[in-house]
Amino acid sequence: MASSDFDGIILGMGNPLLDVSAVVDQDFLNKYDIKLNNAILAEDKHLPMYDEMSKKFNVEYIAGGSTQNSIKVAQWMLQIPGATSYMGSIGKDKYGEAMKKDATAAGVNVHYYEDESTPTGTCGVCVMGGERSLIANLSAANCYKVEHLKKPENWALVEKAKFYYIAGFFLTVSPESIQLVREHAAANNKVFTMNLSAPFICEFFKDVQEKCMPYMDYVFGNETEARTFSRVHGWETDDVEQIAIKISQLPKATGTYKRTTVITQGADPVVVAEDGKVKKYPVILLPKEKLVDTNGAGDAFVGGFLSQLVHGKAIEECVRAGCYASNVVIQRSGCTYPEKPDFN
């Protein structure tokens, strides 16, 4: 394929958030009732934590948001300017400007909705022993409107793309937008992918998630999310391989593609289910002393995976690229990467 064929080939939609990241202590986790390896929406009790983090700990500000991370990593892996596009909502403020600058520098074609009255969303990233916990204060990210998607210059990005990726987190913001995109994908034999994203999505946004499931050609998630999904659906199994198969066999809206389920398990092998069969792929093991934090590991995996999927590569190559990208990201703070990938 010529590089022009890759123009806008992947479109992501999600919640653009500025990560407020710090290594914290157990007292801080206890005080705000935060569990490691989890992702939640901020409640009132969490709101003071962002300020406290910046006073108490060494805080880094990193452009984040789950889908935006994945799209940036796919863009980095592809090394073809403008191969990816992204939509979401930011505030008209310095954080929003910084985010726009960061994503544009990464080569992503961003079309943000800019909310006049709400600040750009933030995500507290609490790191301890390399594990992360995410507490998202969506703010402006929560204000995305389907009207923005319907504008001709934005819908053009939907028309141009052949692959779509939306993290489950966006289900809490604009299910109407997701519906338009997934129906377009189905009607035009394009590839629609989503992520389970967090236990709370599988649990409390089960209905909207279920409406999307028939359209998902690829479902990503980690072992905790898969087990929550199983429990919520009354499957009575904790076996990740069985759960992956069951998810892949849920009804499809069209018969164009069979559904593939891809479940990561930290340092344990990646589980891929398709056609009622499971394959496991080992990850690149990393000595503990090289681990900086797991923030963005799952996002990077998806970005790497998509970068090969759009090239029409076999599933093992997609997984290999996903493992490569997440291995790079966990050796750095946040979802960041060196200038060029050395994936061959």
From TrEMBL:
UniProt record, GO biological process = adenosine salvage; AMP salvage; purine nucleobase metabolic process; response to trehalose-6-phosphate
Q: Which UniProt keywords apply?
A: ATP-binding, Host-virus interaction, Kinase, Magnesium, Nucleotide-binding, Purine salvage, Transferase
Instruction: Identify the SUPFAM superfamilies for this entry.
Output: Ribokinase-like
A family per Pfam:
PfkB
Location of the Carbohydrate kinase PfkB domain: 29-338
Q: Gene3D superfamilies this protein is in? A: 3.30.1110.10, 3.40.1190.20
Keyword check for Cell inner membrane, yes or no.
Answer: no
Q: Where is the active site?
A: 299 (proton acceptor)
Reported cofactor(s): Mg(2+)
User: Which InterPro entries does this one have?
Assistant: Adenokinase, Carboh/pur_kinase_PfkB_CS, PfkB_dom, Ribokinase-like
EC class of this enzyme? transferase
What PROSITE patterns does the database record attribute to this sequence?
Answer: PFKB_KINASES_2 (PS00584)
Q: What is its EC number?
A: 2.7.1.20
Question: Can you tell which superkingdom this protein's organism belongs to?
Answer: Eukaryota
Please write the reaction equations for the catalytic activity of this protein: adenosine + ATP = AMP + ADP + H(+)
GO CC terms in record: cytosol; nucleus
The Swiss-Prot or TrEMBL record annotates one GO molecular function as: ATP binding
Give the metabolic or biological pathway: Purine metabolism; AMP biosynthesis via salvage pathway; AMP from adenosine: step 1/1
Q: What does this protein do?
A: ATP dependent phosphorylation of adenosine and other related nucleoside analogs to monophosphate derivatives. Essential to sustain methyl recycling.
Q: Family assignment?
A: Belongs to the carbohydrate kinase PfkB family.
Name listed for the protein in its UniProt record: Adenosine kinase
